Amino acid sequence: MKLRISQIALVVAGCMAPALGHATNGYFSHGYGIKAKGMAGVGIALPQDAMAAATNPAGMVFVGNRMDVGLDVFMPQREVEMGGMTFDGDGRNMFFVPDFGYNRMINPNLSLGVVVYGNGGMNTTYETSPFGMPGTAGVDLTQLFIAPTVAYKITPDHAVGVSLNLAHQRFSAYGLQPFAMLGLSSDPTKLTNNGEDSSSGWGVRVGWTGRMSDTLTLGATYQTKTKMSKFKEYAGLFADGGDFDIPANYGVGIAFKATPKLTVAADVQQIDYSGVGSVGNPMASPGRLGDPGAPGFGWRDMTVFKLGASYQYNEKLTLRGGFSTGRQPIPSSEVAFNILAPGVIENHLTLGGTWQLGGGKELSVAYMHGFKKTVSGSLPPFMGGGTADLRMSQNSLGVAFGWQF
After folding, report:
1. What tens digit of pLDDT does each residue of 36-60 get?
2. Contact 323, 307 (CB under 8 A)
3. Which residues lie below 8 Å from residue 14, measured CB to CB, with a gap of 6+?
């Protein structure tokens, strides 16, 4: 059967659009592809499947002809404690995160492929509003990437790659009327309860992978800021009239084959949240919500350290594990607005494995636990003063089918 990359990507993207999940390093996923997720997201210097381009596009030329389809079930728990009351943000507590990768070797040194994946997002659904109004309150953000990718071996052991990141995101907010009543929005009609809005844009990810020896591989990758069209229905919520770009991120990685069966790998990833005004501007910024340079979520940049290991137990079974850590992006001074987006997880523990089914087919699984983290801070006078405690923990369980052809 002849597979057409563009048709496959569009079909998978259509299936994914209503079901994208919500993520862990701020609002970025802890990893892309079930194999990488089983190793705490490590993958800059360790391409393992056709999802490699989501981490480092250069890795695609080392994975051969293959297709991978995965589904991760993501289960966050988030709450805020304020004024002696606890507000549960888990009106929705299960999200499905599919992904898809396809790679074709044009010749031994050149590959073409595509990956489709959810970058991440944020969601809270408070059945009882923490803002003192009847009814529910919350937000929902999802992001989808379709990334056609080309990778080329400039020598037998060194490769470069580039992905065109075609991005689409959707957002909704509800129950934020108190911000309008207090005169905090530049356009109260574009602040809340306007249903689902969408925006699109594009950016580029580039990467390099180098096999320095039979046992040591290095990698590096950089993704530009993804410039997105504005959320027009929420121009009175996000800075600069609804602007919500996807931040630049980049990293380096190393993979070491310690024994014929054991590979140890590590990545360092930087996410520049402060480079996007609606995400990085402090709440104390001048102006009203939606104004140029207006208040945002106040997120600082995040550096994530990832360590993973893969062990080939026998010819059919490979086992994986990993741990990642990084200072969460929300300062204590910014807890008030981040009741809507308590992305405070810092530490992740992961486990995974792959079972060879024969005929080039395989089944992979991955489990992730994000350890509970609490961030406390003072509330402004317009929210009654006092303090608020943001809490979150997470679990996910994923499975993927891979086919080497």
Report:
1. 999 999 999 999 999 999 999 999 9
2. yes
3. none
